[in-house]
Design brief:
With about 450 residues, the chain is α/β, with parallel strands linked by helices. About 25% of the residues lie in helices and about 25% in strands. It starts with a strand and ends with a helix.
Length: about 450
């Protein structure tokens, strides 16, 4: 069949396709993101179906028996996946270079192989000896673990169809290339084609496939946005590569809850689970220091206690400096404006630095009250009670609004030995009393400041 060579322009941010170059992408509105790629089009091509002889069936005849999940042996990973690996699923794992994506997946492969599962690890970035060196550091592997170093997508597809493993790891999707597509590996066309092939393999053969994706400087997976829409689950690794903690966050999951997180600690032998993230995040908290407040945030279904630190000092320049780490910069500016307008605190001429200790990124509105109290505590140089936690959303009028899962937040505070909880007054209705802890409801930020 004759081939047609055509030139197509793709947006590097969202994957939008255009027949001509444009300065601004009409889909994502980003500037100067279009790149030129040559695409070979073969006439008469057909799409391979998921399963042979697929026919429509009546909805009432579909069995609702839940498929048995494969447990990875890593409880934190199972939590994020929704209870384990679903057979026939396609999972995308993204994160910064060196943060631990390959290490975690290699640990998962070891545990699955030791449980008798057949696992195939495909690497397009490392040699067999490099993978073996990392594997020796992690532990012993059984003979059901197989390695393949290949970037040709046709060879990879044929190997998977021939061996038919239960779990496949592809590290990484940006290194795979299809000979029929003339653009370079890692381009929009190649990534989209490779993901489609792995999607057909996962659904057609019932194989669970994990693909590793590099991220851009904005923290999103490199390649077209359609990549995240094609897969069943999207997992992101967060955290500083030079720090010991790692956070695995599920941002999309067709088989479980979204926004679940798993907390790990990087050690010499690999990634170790953190069973009590609240205790881990609060380790090293200063005693008797102003500007330090403990808040309770909810990630998925898990309440976590986090320390918010604030430092407010008079500026040495004409324009005050504001800096945040781990939370939204604009939200902190908004809350400082509420303090100045509603309480009359003259903090407009002061520098303000806000930090979420432990390196987590929290944007939940429930930490608003903690941000307010940390800023006021530093401004007045008065420490907050060490045995107190706070949570609540703050509105523009200075009111403290209700948050979700208040009962679970209070129980988490009690579990770690805290004695007082300051929360929105409206959350007191319907709450069961918790032994050993004092609950104080407030309706506005003025009441909350009077309490502490």
């Amino acid at each position: 069949m004759a081939k047609k060579n055509s030139t197509v322009f793709f947006c590097q941010e969202c994957g939008h396709e255009s027949s001509k170059w444009m300065g601004q992408c009409p889909a994502c509105k980003k500037w100067n993101t279009f790149v030129e790629e040559k695409v070979s089009v073969t006439g008469g091509s057909k799409i391979t179906p998921f399963r042979e002889a697929a026919k429509p069936v009546e909805i009432g005849s579909i069995s609702m028996q839940e498929e048995e999940r494969m447990h990875t042996g890593i409880a934190e990973l199972d939590r994020v996946l929704g209870g384990g690996i679903m057979p026939g699923s396609l999972t995308l794992v993204g994160g910064d270079p060196g943060i631990g994506k390959s290490t975690l997946l290699l640990q998962m492969c070891r545990l699955l192989a030791n449980a008798g599962r057949q696992v195939l690890y495909i690497s397009g970035e490392e040699s067999l000896k490099q993978i073996k060196l990392r594997a020796i550091r992690i532990g012993e592997f059984q003979d059901t673990m197989f390695l393949l170093c290949e970037t040709n997508l046709s060879v990879v597809e044929e190997t998977i169809r021939h061996t038919k493993p239960e779990v496949v790891i592809v590290d990484s999707i940006q290194t795979m290339y299809q000979e029929a597509v003339t653009s370079a590996p890692g381009s929009v066309s190649q990534v989209r084609e490779a993901t489609n092939v792995f999607l057909q393999l996962a659904k057609g053969l019932g194989i669970s496939i994990f693909i590793v994706g590099h991220v851009t400087k904005e923290g999103t997976v490199a390649g077209p946005r359609v990549l995240e829409h094609m897969v069943d689950t999207v997992l992101y690794f967060e955290g500083d590569r030079y720090a010991s903690y790692r956070i695995l966050r599920g941002v999309k999951n067709r088989f479980g809850s979204t926004n679940e997180i798993g907390v790990f600690e990087m050690r010499r032998e690999g990634l170790i689970e953190v069973e009590n993230p609240s205790e881990y995040m609060l380790s090293g908290k200063p005693i008797g220091a102003s500007g330090s407040v403990v808040v309770c945030s909810v990630e998925g279904t898990r309440p976590i206690l986090i320390e918010i630190q604030a430092l407010v000092c008079r500026t040495n320049f004409g324009i005050p400096r504001r800096q945040t780490t781990g939370t939204d910069f604009n939200r902190v500016n908004l809350l400082m404006a509420v303090l100045e307008k509603r309480l009359g605190l003259q903090i407009g001429d002061f520098d303000a630095y806000v930090n979420i200790a432990g390196g987590m990124k929290i944007n939940e509105p429930a930490i608003d009250l903690g941000l307010i109290l940390a800023i006021v505590s530093s401004f007045k140089n008065r420490p907050v009670d060490e045995k107190m936690i706070v949570f609540g959303e703050v509105g523009l009028s200075g009111e403290v609004r209700a948050v979700t899962m208040a009962q679970q937040r209070v129980q988490e505070a009690r579990k770690l030995g805290y004695e007082t909880v300051v929360l929105p007054r409206v959350n007191l209705e319907g709450m069961d009393p918790v032994d050993g802890i004092k609950v104080i409801g407030v309706g506005g930020i003025g009441e909350a400041i009077d309490v502490i």
